[in-house]
Amino acid sequence: MFQLRLGLFLRRLVSGVNVGEPTTLSLTSESDSQMKLSPLTSNAESASVETYVNMLATCPITYDAAALVFRLTSHGLSQASQYYTVDEHCSDAVVLGQNLSKAYRLMATFELNESRQCCIHKRRIDLLDRLLRPLSRKHYQLLCRQLMFELAGALTTLRDLKHQAYENLRDARSESHPHYARKANALARRSLTVYQQFLDTFPRSGSQSSSTEALSEDELRLVMLAHFYSARLHSKMIPANRTERISNVNKAFSQYNYVVSLVDSHLRHHPTSTIGQAEEVSIAREMVSLLPIKLNRLARGEHLNE
To answer: Which of 123, 141, 142, 215 could form a disulfide with 219 if both were Cys (CB 3.0 to 4.6 A apart)?
Structure first.
């Protein structure tokens, strides 16, 4: 029965996708819900359903294979989103959007061209932002948190790509490298803003101790990660001068220090918790020890590599 239903599903799924088309993805500004795919050719119609079952059950290892799976996935999600709209099926519509965002993220790992990688992640960002904007923070708090965290991560990924482009152009002594520095910093600031919006959805009391008690273990981990990733973003900002660099390092230190304090406060009340074993916590403890030394050296006017 399962195989029969799967066969019917796959026939309907692949009926809207031309697997014989070139697998280069279209990365125009066209919205995801309006993505157009050509119908199957007569040759493709003769392919057995088992071919598609095997294809979808096998992890793609080449760009062409991944692009084909991506097109099938995005087509299916696009079809589903015509019924599960934000106005009538909000939660389901958001989940569909999250799945499409994940498809973009996975597809980007097969793309070798950095410019096209940026385009893919830009579409992810636009998609997540479009999903998040109309949602009520009060009535869809969990969904908003998920979207905020993913959006901040997507912005950080795009920032890293712009930073890499900046370093490549700087090393090549290109005059356009300041443009990429501004792009990377703008994306970092936007990501920091989204992380702060995410943190604002959690209760905050007068003391850190009471704040941690109000959070579950899973919530505490997310809060810890948001502060940790914020610290890394501050430390990766491209400074225009020494004063700005010192300010960025100070902000990174404050965030790392908060991570350590947050986790230590939680462990005092829950000594059996495993959150203290997280790699991010170990890195934060190390940074809390190292960054004051770096700040002192910068204050003395020493030149340090970024």
So the answer is: 215
